[in-house]
Specification:
InterPro entries: AAA_lid_NorR, Homeodomain-like_sf, HTH_Fis, P-loop_NTPase, Sigma_54_int, Sigma_54_int_dom_ATP-bd_2, Sigma_54_int_dom_CS. Pfam families: AAA_lid_14, HTH_8, Sigma54_activat. With about 270 residues, this protein is mainly α. It has eleven helices and eight strands. It has three domains: about 90 residues, 3-Layer(aba) Sandwich (Rossmann fold); about 70 residues, Helicase, Ruva Protein, domain 3; about 50 residues, Orthogonal Bundle (Arc Repressor Mutant, subunit A).
Length: about 270
């Protein structure tokens, strides 16, 4: 972000301008700002307040005029309460907030997003697929997209790479989406079985016959469901934090925090 001077650290063979200097007079985008360390937060705050930066290893101060756009999928107000995000920095960046709902709540955007992603992927992989069929679009609209736009992009890329037609069909997408849906259904089924087993165990321990009390009388709490869902996801992804976070639709920092919250992190 701030660049460095030649010789400021091992491998710094030449002076390099950082992102802020490169963006001087323009715009810089800071993604996942909620995951920034406290030291980086302090540096960002200084830039926003004074418009000044220094390269790593340098003493010269440079003035920059940059519009900053930042994004996060975390609750910064909650992080402020936890002491993990600076309140003064929050007020600096929260000048014009825009809240983007999850993809499942704005399905009208799916066709436009799909065509934009398709155009990028077609060029990236030099694909011969010419367009996406209307029934395929309908199939995309019907899906719940727990992983939001990243999952949409991943799904389209997989489907396009295995497509042997002149255009992407509903069947091409079906092979990918059915697999995803089976995983979701399997997670729910596993969770239901584990909940039922827990109820039966509790009934046996208290001397109550399982058949006397219907299983449906026990309803798992949201906390229990979240914990089991995270546990299943990390185990299925062999504790790959990046893949698990994308599957759950949360950031890696949020995933780490929840693993620690539920006492699962020691298994990593």
């Amino acid at each position: 972000l701030f660049g460095h001077e030649k010789g400021s650290f091992t491998g710094a063979d030449e002076r390099k301008d950082g992102k802020f200097l490169i963006a001087n007079g323009g715009t810089i985008f800071l993604d996942e700002i909620g995951d920034m360390s406290s030291s980086l937060q302090a540096k960002i705050l200084r830039v926003l307040e004074s418009g000044e930066i220094e390269r790593v290893g340098g003493a010269e101060t440079h003035t920059v005029d940059v519009r900053v756009i930042s994004a996060t999928n975390q609750d910064l107000n909650e992080k402020i309460k936890e002491g993990k995000f600076r309140e003064d920095l929050f007020h600096r960046i929260n000048v014009f907030p825009v809240t983007l709902p999850p993809l499942r709540d704005r399905k009208v955007d799916i066709p436009l997003l799909t065509y934009a992603i398709f155009k990028t992927l077609k060029k990236k992989h030099n694909l011969s697929v010419s367009y996406i069929g209307p029934k395929a679009i309908d199939r995309l609209i019907d899906y719940s997209w727990p992983g939001n736009v990243r999952e949409l992009e991943n799904t389209l890329e997989r489907a396009l790479l295995i497509c042997n037609n002149k255009y992407l069909t509903e069947e091409d997408l079906g092979s990918v989406l059915d697999e995803k849906q089976m995983t979701i259904d399997s997670d729910k089924e596993t969770l239901d079985k584990e909940t039922a087993q827990e109820i039966a165990t509790n009934e046996t321990a208290t001397g109550t016959q399982p058949q006397e009390i219907p299983i449906t009388t026990k309803v798992a709490t949201l906390k229990e469901i979240e914990m089991e869902t995270i546990k299943l996801s990390v185990e299925r992804n062999k504790w790959n934090m990046t893949t698990t976070a994308e599957e759950l639709g949360i950031s890696r920092m949020t995933l780490y925090r929840k693993l620690e919250k539920y006492g699962l992190r020691d298994k990593d």
